Amino acid sequence: MALAVGCRARPGKGRDNKTGSWRVFKPIFDHNLCSKCGTCQVICPEGCITEDAEGFFDPDYAYCKGCGMCAEECPKKAIEMKQEEK
Amino acid sequence: MLGITEGSMAVAEAVRLCRPQVVSAYPITPQTHIVEALAEMVANGKLDADYITVESEFSALSACIGASAAGSRAYSATTSQGLALMYEVCFNVAGMRLPIVMTIANRAMGAPLSIWNDQQDSISLRDAGWMQFYAEDNQEATDLHYIAYKVAENQKVLLPAMVCFDGFILSHTYEPVDMLSQEDADKYLPKFAPSERLDAADPVSFGMYATPEYYLEFRYETDKALKDAKSVIRAAGAEFGKMFGRDYSAMVEGYQLDDAETVIVAMGSLCGTVKDTIDEMRKEGKKVGLLKIRVFRPFPTEDVAAALKGAKRVAVLDKNISLGAKGATALEVKDALYGSTIPVYDYVLGLGGRDVRKKDIREVVALAEQGKGNQFIGLRKEVL
Amino acid sequence: MRELRIHGRGGQGSVTAAELIAVAAFEGGVFSQAFPAFGVERRGAPVQAFVRFDDRKIRLRSQVYEPDYIIVQDSTLIKDVNVFSGVKKGGIVIVNTEKAPDYKVPDGVKLITIDATSIALKVIGLPITNTSLMGAFAAATGEIKFDALKNALYHRFPKELAEKNIEAARQAFEHVKGATA
């Protein structure tokens, strides 16, 4: 790949870098406890949590690094961090 | 048209004719007259540009980065401590490959505080990746601005340029200058048309971070672009000569060089005084010549070596010193002549506004003939 | 090449005089160069400014040490500064004073005294003596034509102010012409 003059880059480069494999703990979302407040989406540093048609939230495990901030902040304790089976 | 004006006014007028779209600068002696004049031109509608006032030189050049990355022709001017405050930004401009042109009204570096001329300020930025042009007189100072933009914006180059002219000695001197018309300036310097620019509708980032796998390669490419700029500089200088009769195709210029035994190497306004001294010494039968260096970065190593090959001895004048080593030009000339048997003697003079007279140049020639280099000229031993 | 050195005090317009003389000389068809001695510009402190005249492009950038002409804007400077230093034989010194000289100029140098302060006060209403001294310089040396001086002043100042300065310069010009005729 030729270098871009002036080290310039188009946006979206980060998407090539699938960070899901970094996880040690995986967040499991329990929709039965969820109040659809959206705090997990706001707090996620990776920006990988999206809302579905019914208003529930789920992470994209291709990118989720398992940091656990969603689980820590969830007011309903509806997210559980479970150790990855590797 | 030939007219008589102050150096700063001539430079400001030449900058206006280059049609910068954004000017951002912070006033500092002896650059002040230039930016005051440009601010007035913008306020009076004589220059269709945004003049961004800022609180420091750091911000001035940073504003130029934004403007240039967004696709504008950007201009700044500074000197001395102001340039030092831009140090970090200067490297960013070159690394992002932005063709900003900046005038340096050369002035000494503090401490001790001095508002007077030498070339320590821009010489200290020689490693930043900018082209550096040095003017002998105000005619050259104005002409070099058109050439600087033309070369900087060349797609093969895309690097910033400093046009350096000696503070006070040129900036505050009234002398005749032949100014281009707007029509001629436009013919020589077309609109800036970058292939890539900051645009919210089509986002791109400039100067991203490079990991150790890539950083070395970015530096290699920037260095290569600066070295390759030599041919672009020569071509742009030749085109200027063809259009307006003043040829700047050579990065170095000889004066009475052909049969010269002692060749003085100098940069900037010193060259005029050296030429007058050479004329006097030639009448006395002394074979003295001058090699004037107009472009210090990229350094024309091959041109210097070729021009000096017939000399018996070389005396390099520096209005700067790399403390603990030598003057910067002397180091470059020694590098250019590496492997030859021609002795190179180095002299530091004119620091902090010390007047350089014909007798000082004669002293340099006499010392070189005695094989004595590594000297400060005009040192007042009684105060040491 | 001929060289002029102007001695004045900060605020008396020495630098402006040098610039206007260079402009007028250039209009007269010679190459000229004007520059100040780059001092720290404080009101009242001794300052110098320089002008060179030549038939070819001027390259020399050093200050003027052996002038052909000297203008002393303020005669009190003669006590503090060696204003006559280096003046060439056959040179001309113009001193602004209303008194008879109690100093000596070097041998072979012509001294012209003029009360430029009185002319300036009478015509301009301010003790700004540089334009009167420019008139005296034009008459004494012939380096600049009076008309070129007039144009330079019109170019530099608003019309009314320019006219007052031109009148001051004219009176000084005629005074020197009369004295040397």
In the CATH scheme, what's the topology name of chain C? Answer: Pyruvate-ferredoxin Oxidoreductase, domain 3
**How much helicity do the residues of chain C have?**
25-40%
Order of helices and strands of chain C: EHEEEHEEHHHH
CATH A-level architecture of chain C? 3-Layer(aba) Sandwich
Order of strands in the sheet with most strands of chain B: 3-2-4-5-7-6-12
Alpha-beta content class of chain B:
alpha/beta
Strand elements of chain C, count: 6
- Spans where pLDDT lies below 50 across 5 or more residues of chain C: none
Per DSSP E runs of 2 or more residues, the count of β-strands of chain B stands at 15
Shape of chain B: globular
- Give the overall pLDDT of chain C as a whole number: 94
- Total number of domains of chain C: 1
Describe this structure in words.
The complex is a heterotrimer of chains A (86), B (384) and C (181). With 86 residues, chain A is of the alpha+beta class. Chain A is built from 2 helices and 4 strands, in the order E-H-E-E-H-E. Chain A has helices at residues 39-43, 69-73, and strands at 25-29, 49-51, 57-59, 79-83. In chain A, the strands form 2 sheets. In chain A, strands 1-4 form a two-stranded antiparallel sheet. The model of chain A has no long low-confidence stretch (mean pLDDT 92). By secondary structure, chain B is α/β, with parallel strands linked by helices. Chain B folds into 2 domains: 2-244, Thiamin diphosphate (ThDP)-binding fold, Pyr/PP domains (Rossmann fold); 252-383, 3-Layer(aba) Sandwich (Rossmann fold). Helices cover 39% and strands 18% of the residues of chain B. The mean pLDDT of chain B is 97. Chain C has 6 helices and 6 strands; from the N terminus they run E-H-E-E-E-H-E-E-H-H-H-H. Chain B binds chain C through residues 4, 6, 115-117, 136-137, 166, 168-169, 172-176, 269-273, 275-276, 353, 355-358, and chain C through 18-19, 22-23, 26, 31-36, 38, 40, 57-63, 65.
